[in-house]
Amino acid sequence: MEPSDTTVMRGGLLQLDCQARSVQGAPLVAWRKDGVLLSALVDERRQQLNNGTLLVREVIHSRHHQGDEGGYQCLAWLEGVGAIVSRTAKVTSLPLLPVTPQPSSRDTTLLRCDVIGEPTPVIRWQKDRRDIVLDPAGRAVALPSGALQFSRVQPSDAAAYRCLAEDPAEARTSTDTVLRVLPESRQPRSLVFLQRPSPVAALEGRDAVFECSASGYPAPSFLWTKAGSAINTRSERFALLGGSNLLIRGVRLEDAGVYRCTALNGHRNISASCELSVLAPPRFLKAPANRYAYESTDVEMECAVTGSPPPTVRWAKNGDMVVPSDYFRILDGGNLQILGLVKSDEGFYQCMAENAAGNAQVAAQLILREPVPQAPPPVPPTSLTDSSPPPPVVPSSSALPSAPCDLVPVLVSSRSVRLAWRPPEETHGKVQGYTVYFSEEGINRERSVSTSHSASSPLTVDGLKPEQPYVFRVVAYNDLGSGASSATISVTTKPESQVPGPVEHPQAEPLSPTSALASWDAPVSPDIPILGYRLFWTEMATGKEQVTGHSYRFEGLRKFTQYKVRILPYNQYGLGESAGDLVLRTLSDVPSSAPQNISLEVLSSRSIKVCWLPPPADSQNGFITGYSIRHRKTGRRGDHETIEPNNLWYLFTGLDRGSQYSFQVSAMTVNGSGPPSEWHAAETPENDLDESQVPDQPSSLHVRPLATSIIVSWTPPLSHNIVVRGYIIGYGVGSPYAETVRVDSKQRYYSIDNLEPSSHYVISLKSFNNAGEGVPLYESAVTRAATESSTPMIPPVGVQALPLTPDSVRVSWADNSISKNQKSSEQCFYTVKWMVSYSTSGKYKTTDTTALSHTVTGLKPNTMYEFAVMVTKGRKSSTWSMTTHATTYETAPSSAPKDLTVISREGKPRAALISWQPPAEANGKITGYILFYTVDRNAPIDTWFMEAIGADRLTHQVADLSPDTTYHFRIQAKNSRGVGPLSEPVLFRTPKAEYPDKMANDQGERPWHPLHVLSYVFYNSSPADLPMGHLHPPPKNGLLVIVVVSVGALAVVTVVIVALICTRRSSDQGRAARRSCGPPDLWIHHEEMELKSIEKPGGSAPSVCESPIQSHPEISPVGHGLSESHTGSKRDGDDVSSSIATLEHPLAARRPTRTKLLMPMDPQPSNPGNVIVDVSWNQVTVSSFLTSHSVAAMAAEASASHSQQATVTMSPSPEGCGAEEATSRTVPTACVRPTHPLRSFAGPLLPPTGKFPSLNQSVISV
């Protein structure tokens, strides 16, 4: 028996009982007060009886010296065994305070009698020295605090009152107080609280009372609310005492919270709040059990406790509190862990739990068995009730293993040591394992770690202290027991790595509904620098590494969601300590979705009821503060109604008859209104339904019996002009009147449960309204036998899945349990489930159908799914059928490639490297990418430049960009079904060129071609303006000039002869072709570009406005690029490196005139080729061209070249008619270097200002 809490009057007698028993003898009993043995305190008022009871006479209040109030414990012990202590009994004395009533009152008065004691003494009231008989429903009521409250005070209440406090020991009486009653003036008086509600702490299962009273005229009424919801004070658990005090019967844990008392009298409202705390005394979920153990082993004694508030757990050994240390550890859950047991650890251990509701304790005994010499440590039993095994036979030392050899440390850290050794020289059988014993130097407590490996593999000993010397030894054991111990070695652990401490002043605050900011100061750490910080937050289950600053902004958080943030600094040694978790909640926002399950119910010709449910919890984004209902009549403007958050329906009245109304509901938070729902329409009838007579009989009634239930279904009466408020179902064995159930008018089925098997039941069904009950309809059924065997159902067979579209699959099957014509003889349905094949999550979706096929929609394109079907008949269901697989069709990508990045190339200011990742929703196998870029972001996409890229590439280089120019890049993916959306534009600005030559030659050094010079001379009047570069102007040699002029004249004659021959051959067809022909199309390789004639089909003349892009089946033209004079250049100096500029317009008016597309083609050979240059003359004659600067010299130099040839065909025709004739021949082509399409915008194609380039590399041959 343990002592219990008690309350005693001052000067009274205190009695505390305690009894202890033991099978090993009568234990000794002593008492403690506040942890001090009473035997050490001399006091004649205390006496301990032989049975252990403690008596204290003439109790002294604690305000006096050596008061008797406090905590008492009974201590029982046995010599040589141990000791235990009881729970702590709280003793309080009972002081009385004088009654403090209102001296006068008109409506409500309160007489207080403040008594302190635990448990609370019984309070009685007397009127004129006579006991008052109180009626709980009367005007006078005694409150738990001891106060006496009068409502609607009357003159007869005027008298002298006093209170009496009683406990089992004695009673005390207060002084008299006279109550005067004043007449009511009937003038309005403002409301004032006589008693504001105060916080209440109640034990679970006890009653709790919130006291609240107010005075005023008119007399107030009272309303109690919790969390904004009104409390029904006429329910089973809630009631009003004295018309204003809230009584809660049988308090539960869920009743805890904040309550508000509101007094209102029509003129003014006043309110006050208070909190209810529900206390639950400690209760043991898992108590420690008696244990046997051996020395040098570790043991853990379990103790799990619950209570409200959460109790604190302490441990006591033999009546003394256990102080946590290196070898005695109280773990987080309350368990006690003892490391390296020694003989003195034996005794009684008590787990003691305490909270505000009380305290409790439970004890267990730990016994250490004597170690058997040379025997391995057996598995200890878990309880003292286990039968002790017989003493093992001690084997001789000749049958046990010898000592292991060469015990050495192989790895030493700050908190662990890894040991290795060699097996014993004499094993005397197979070695079963090893045990390593270790202890701190100078400490007798030895611990052990065992391994079951027979080989002498290394063993790691963890949980050591830094910079601490330890002693280690190892023992081997075989089937007979443990052998000899090895020699001991001493190992000192290394110093602790200097990891950082916790950060200073961590803070976290929300910035918006989706972002928050965490900040902190650097930890106070040694000289080792902090490398960064690692942040973790629970909602997203992720971390952010390498945060080098002292703040971090979280983005993409969920709205109005609580997060826990942890900040860990780290250095070169690893992560540091945590400063604890920071808790924050993101700000609220308007709801992101509309209310759910909106329904309309037409109640009459003038009213419609609208019902709804709140938005999903994850989309409310805050506390719902109300709902907004927009309603309108067809053809009219709508109105708004605002509803309180606790109401989930609203009745619209006064509507027009025979009219259609539409309703829309949206939820509101403090931030505003969320999105509205869809419009829901309902039409009021022309006339109200008749309720002057009872409804007709239901038109049908069906029953389906099962073993212990009957499923009833019905249809409503045929007459729809009479109101039906609901249905009454009656049932019973042999009679339908034994039990009745009322259901709503919208319900069409009901399951009657808890019936007897194999019984005959009669069921009746009738409808009712306010006029009365209609005529019943009867049916009977016999429930099935409980023992009847049911054969397992056969699952559907032949399940097939056929893809229909990229997002739908049709699933069909056969059911062998029904007839061959595939029509079921009884009601059944099928469940189809599907999931992505080889999915690791295991999540699947289901749908029900009554047909033998179903089309599953909403699937992902180009994804393999697996399907299975199950059949259900009544309450029986089959297993799932065999799965079948189907892959949905491909469709065009529905997302753009990700992570589009543009960077510059080092040393190449005119080149850019583009990289990307495949789209997240490829919807099929990617067959390629299309890159778009432009200098004008606002230009239509069909005017951007485009380059096609293979599917196996995720990077691409764009060359020949203009320096110091801003470009915009976008990319899209394509598959066999089409192209996907474009990515967002990425801005990139090319760097500035260091000098003109580098800008012109950023893709590699290439000399000026003589044709550049030819074009430049044609447009410039002075050779002094020639460009400067690595080449030099031609030497001023007269002989060279003569040679050049002579060769030029010969070239002119040759050209004229060739032109006359071509003119004669072309005839009339040539003339027609010349009127519509244009420059030859270009077939351009991505790396090396070719200048070719594109042969046209017979009978179709080439068109000037056609482009290669228009003829491509998959790619549409997106922009206008380079003219034919700007097609590219070769890589090597010996090759032809530029083409001739178009001479149809002045240089200032030149603009890009044709579309450019870079397509990856087979690479061309690197051998020198020929260039066909077709020059059309509109305003310049051949003679004027030939008299330009140094043409003859250029021709002479070209004729001497053996590395490459170029054929120049000059046609004087203004229409360029020689093109068709060229297309009819097989002309060798020349590999030319690609030129970026935007060069036409960057500047003219003429060489930069400088000297005339050297012509010693000219390659023109005529």
UniProtKB/TrEMBL annotation:
Primary localisation category: membrane
Residue stretches spanning the membrane: 1038-1062
Listed Polar residues bias regions: 486-496
Family designation: Belongs to the immunoglobulin superfamily. DCC family.
Localization in the cell: Membrane
Fibronectin type-III domain segment(s): 403-496, 502-589, 594-687, 694-790, 795-891, 896-993
GO biological process annotation, one example: cell-cell adhesion
Matches recorded under InterPro entries: FN3_dom, FN3_sf, Ig-like_dom, Ig-like_dom_sf, Ig-like_fold, Ig_I-set, Ig_sub, Ig_sub2
Topological type in the membrane: Single-pass type I membrane protein
Transit peptide as UniProt keyword: no
Domain Ig-like: from-to ranges: 1-92, 95-179, 188-277, 282-367
Keywords from the UniProt entry: Disulfide bond, Glycoprotein, Immunoglobulin domain, Membrane, Repeat, Transmembrane, Transmembrane helix
Gene3D superfamilies in alphabetical order: Immunoglobulins (2.60.40.10)
Annotated region (Disordered), positions in chain: 372-399, 486-514, 672-700, 1095-1153, 1200-1222
The name this protein goes by in its record: DCC netrin 1 receptor
Annotated Pfam families: fn3, I-set, Neogenin_C
Cellular component GO terms, alphabetical: membrane
Record PANTHER family: NETRIN RECEPTOR DCC, PROTEIN SIDEKICK
